[in-house]
Design goal:
elongated; 255 residues; two-stranded antiparallel ribbon; seven-stranded mixed beta sheet; Helicase, Ruva Protein, domain 3
C-alpha cells in the first residue's frame, strides 16, 4: 500500500531503471546516495554497481522491510530519516541517484547543492515540467530562478522522459531523468553571490515587466546601468543569460 502523503509513486520497470543508472555514469569506486528507495528495486541494482550505497527512507514500514532485505549486503546502508535533514557533508565524495518524491524536488536539490563540495553529480527522476525548467535556455517560459540557481552550480542535461503509466500508482504527469554534474567552479564569476541571487529573484518576481521596472528597487539609475552594459531596459528577465545577470550584479555591487 503506497502512502500518498509521502509522494510514493514507484518505478518497477528494470529497463527504465537500467537507463537511469547508465545516465548517472557510475563506477565501482563510487559512493551513491539513493533518496526514497521505496520497495528497493533500484537499490538492488545500484548495490551491484557501486562500492557504497546509502539509501535514505522516510517511511518506517518500508525502512524495516529494506533493512531486512539488505542485511547481507555489506556495501549498503539503509537509513531511516528525512533526506532534507541528512548530514551529506559527512560522507565524503558522493553521487545521488534517485526517484525523488515530487513534493520535495526543489528543497532536496537545494539541500544537495548546499553539500556541493562533496557532491559530484545528481541523476534524478522528477516531474517533466520541473526538469524542463532546470535545463531551460533564455527566452522561454520555462527559464527562471530555478534554472539560473541550478545552472550556476551545475551542468544540467535532460536524459529521457518516463511516461506516467510506468509508475505505480501512476502520477498525474510524466516524469523525466535529469543529470546534473556539479561544476568545479560556478558557471559565472561574480563579486557577491548574495547580490547575484537577489538580483535574479527580484527580476523574476515580476517577470512580465520590463527590467527597468522590475529592478527599480536597485536604484533610480538602474536604467542607465542597463544601457551602459548594452542591455535594453525594455527586455524582460527571461531573455537575460546567466552571464548578463552576472555582469549586472557586479555593477550593482560596485554602485
Amino acid at each position: 500500500m503506497t502512502k500518498k502523503h509521502l509522494g510514493q509513486n514507484f518505478l518497477y520497470d528494470n529497463s527504465i531503471l537500467n537507463r537511469l543508472i547508465q545516465a548517472a555514469g557510475l563506477s565501482e569506486e563510487d559512493t551513491v546516495v539513493e533518496i526514497g528507495p521505496g520497495p528497493g528495486r533500484l537499490t538492488r541494482m545500484l548495490a551491484k554497481t557501486v562500492q557504497r550505497l546509502i539509501a535514505i527512507e522516510l517511511d518506517p514500514e518500508l525502512y524495516e522491510r529494506l533493512k531486512g532485505d539488505f542485511i547481507a549486503c555489506r556495501n549498503v546502508e539503509i537509513i531511516h530519516g528525512d533526506a532534507l535533514l541528512f548530514p551529506f557533508e559527512t560522507i565524503g565524495e558522493f553521487k545521488v541517484v534517485a526517484n525523488i518524491p515530487y513534493y520535495i524536488t526543489t528543497p532536496i536539490i537545494f539541500r544537495l547543492l548546499d553539500a556541493r563540495k562533496h557532491l559530484k553529480s545528481m541523476t534524478l527522476t522528477i516531474q517533466k515540467e520541473v526538469s524542463e525548467r532546470i535545463v531551460a535556455e533564455p527566452g522561454g517560459k520555462d527559464y527562471g530562478v530555478l534554472t539560473i540557481m541550478i545552472q550556476y552550480f551545475a551542468r544540467s542535461e535532460l536524459k529521457f522522459i518516463i511516461p506516467k503509466e510506468a509508475f505505480h500508482p501512476a502520477p498525474k504527469v510524466d516524469s523525466a531523468v535529469v543529470y546534473m554534474k556539479i561544476l568545479a567552479q560556478p558557471a559565472v564569476t561574480v563579486r557577491d553571490e548574495k547580490m547575484f541571487f537577489l538580483l535574479v529573484k527580484t527580476a523574476f518576481a515580476q517577470r512580465r515587466k520590463m527590467l527597468s521596472n522590475s529592478l527599480k528597487s536597485f536604484g533610480e539609475n538602474v536604467t542607465d546601468i542597463l544601457i551602459s552594459l548594452g542591455i535594453d531596459p525594455r527586455r524582460r528577465p527571461e531573455t537575460l543569460s546567466i552571464e548578463e545577470f552576472a555582469r549586472l550584479s557586479d555593477i550593482l555591487k560596485k554602485e
